[in-house]
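Continuing the batch. This is chain 6 of the set; chains 1 through 5 are on the previous pages. Same settings as before, nothing changed between runs. Recording input and output for traceability.
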Amino acid sequence: MEEQKPIQNDTTSPVPTEEVTSTTPVVEITKRSLRVQTWRKIQQNSAGVVSNGIFNRIPDFIDNDKAAALLAETAEFKKANKIKVNIDRALDAVKLQVLAAGKELYLPGTRESNALYLKVECPAEATEEERKEIIHVQDIQKSRTEILLENKIKFDLVVIGSCLVSRDGYRIGRGNGFADLDIGLLIEIGSITPETVIATFVHDLQVVDNLPTNLFQKYDTPVDLIVTPTEVIRVAKPLPRPPGLFWEILSERRLKIIPVLQVLKENEEKAGKIITLKEENTDVESSANKRYQRRRRPYRPRQRRSETQSERPRRKRQSGARRPRSSKKSEASVTEDNNKEDAPQKQNKRGQQQPGKRPQKRRPNKPTSSKDRFCVKVTNIPKYIRVKDIKTELRKREINPLYITWKGQLGKCYLHFPKLEVSTELDEDVSSVLKSLSDLSITAGEQNETCVLTTELMKFDAKAEQARQDEAVLESHSSQRIESVDTTTV
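Output for chain 6:
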């Protein structure tokens, strides 16, 4: 590792000191402004890991292995047995230290599961490379054990990331509120007790002496322990923690994002507790960057020129326009023109021939042979269902078609599967696919509606293949927009 430059740490104030004049505009101090200042400070001092990014996230920083080593030497870490670490990549060094010390490592649950948290299963004899692979596994079925709400445990140590933290325990996260919500949930169910230590893992540039207390709300999580690459800071007077969840500031959208919240709400209501949620869905994820959302433009058919327009004479050249070239041609140009006339012709967009270019074969978007696949037709698809919803449901059922022909505007799609031959009798592969798709249903849309889809096996021969192609041509002309072929991997 290259030798790092010494870092000048300004811990006197969270806001950089600048020369103030009578014309200096007054900038309101908010959590967002403090985050941006911290991200810029890390960037200017080259203290962040560029591959992971800095802005709009918990920043990963250099020398995080030194900070993890300091954390492993603390009495709080040595005493702890069950340790929960947030999923941020900046905390990977902490996860490796927990596994190396032989302690139980827990991670937050996923959005596709009702698990409260996930226990990481790592063999005691695993090497460092194997531990790195285990903590980066995305599939919860590998090296993970789901801990449901009824099997909750008590944590000794909880490590969370931060964008900015003060020495008196105030913490500012990345801004989406998931860390505070997770802490409130763990306090609500009793997984975090007054004896549980809440620690954060940051760079020295992310630590300040104090923060404006008026920025913090009742649900903000304070910390008890701050670990940097150079020091361990213990908060002298721990701040009060939130008592649990505040249902009145949560909306239905947030409960859909975190399924275990919906399970807890149902259990509380069965026990007789009255829970009222926020009516408006204002707690939208900040990670949804609208810049990269694809905008769908309405299809407008190309207007052909009428006969009167095509017969209309061209306008005469205005005065001062460029003069036409001389009609005299050299022998070389005449020879070149003759060669162009002898060359094969190519049609342009209007069907006219263009001289001097060879016709190119149109590249098909999908296999034209019907002997190398079988196809399942899915119908009864509502307009609010997208192809990604179909793919998600197919992954859950472990069905992997070769590609999907999507005709959602017409309420159907085709699932193409690789196969050597399709006979009149259904073999095991076809039967297993049809059995898995027999009760195909999808829940999606703003109203969270559930629709049951219909599946049908399509058998191809020469006549059926031609009929299918003719049907696709007719549908493309009659539909309101151009139908696309989705050939992405499911």
